[in-house]
Design a protein that fits this description.
Strand content: 15-25%
Radius of gyration: 26 Å
CATH class of the largest domain: Alpha Beta
Order of helices and strands: HHHEEHEHEHEEEEHEHEHEEHE
Mean pLDDT: 84
Number of domains: 3
Number of helices: 10
Low-confidence stretches: 3-8, 306-323
CATH superfamily of the largest domain: Periplasmic binding protein-like II
Distance between the termini: 72 Å
Length: 323
Amino acid sequence: MTWQLIAIRYNCAVELLAHLDALVAVVDAQSFTRAADRLGIPQPVVSRRVHNLERVWGQPLLDRTARASTPTPFAQAVLPHARELLLRAERLERAVSSARKGVIRTLGVPPDCPAPALARLLQAAAEHGLTLAIRELPARSRQEALESGELALALTRVTVERASLRVPLGLAAAPSRPGPSGGAWHLDVLRPRRGSSTPSPQLLVLPEDDVEPFLDRLRDEVARAGMSPAGIRVDPPGTAAAQVLAAGAVLFCDRGTAERLGLGWAPLASRTLDRGYELTAPASLSEWMVPLLRAAVGGVPSDYAEPPESEPVDPALRFAASG
């Protein structure tokens, strides 16, 4: 491909983005005038760009008979794709801007890592001649930011079998709830006793665990324990803690999170639901970063031995039946 052809395609892509930006602005503002003000360009330019899209696609995009500029059914079908393309272009611009500086590498980590642990990570990076910036994002957002180029490095979620470090998960409940008699929870203790009118408690997970490999495995384990997987809900930490304390819900989380939220906690008997992490980074960085990140997320080595299976919990101590 010649440089001239590359330039033509680049210019066409930039023009398309400008036209899509105008369309989205008009739909959001429901007015060509307000859209022009928002974009900082003359109103005739906005009108011309929308008209050009209609001419190229051969379909009307806006209903101009109403007082407000409303999208036609055709426009409603293409708008989600236009918004996604504009978002990706914005991410690309940020990645290009960061790359031009060439001195800072951004690392994505889970939310709520202890500040002292992150400080040790930054100090170690400086000692290795690396200027590091840290962004705290949930697992799904870290993966998207890594793929878009916003992150150069990231601690990504993988199954525990593939993980270089893992974080033991357990159940957090109100401090007044009795803990498991064997020291670790079996999920079937959440199921109400036969003949009881008490429903199973609401099962909560954090945004950090809102990833399909984990949720699929959790749904299977919950169903195997005799409960409905439909009862699983994703909530942020503060909302989840409120539900645990006020409504008797239980939260799947790590020990550190439970302690920060003021909840009681005990590990799950099975380690198959542990969080698995892999550092997406060059091997030269992983060697010294992984131990520091393990401390930051409350992790253990990948070869961490499973605790002995605890005895089944006395039904009298089940969450659902306890007062």
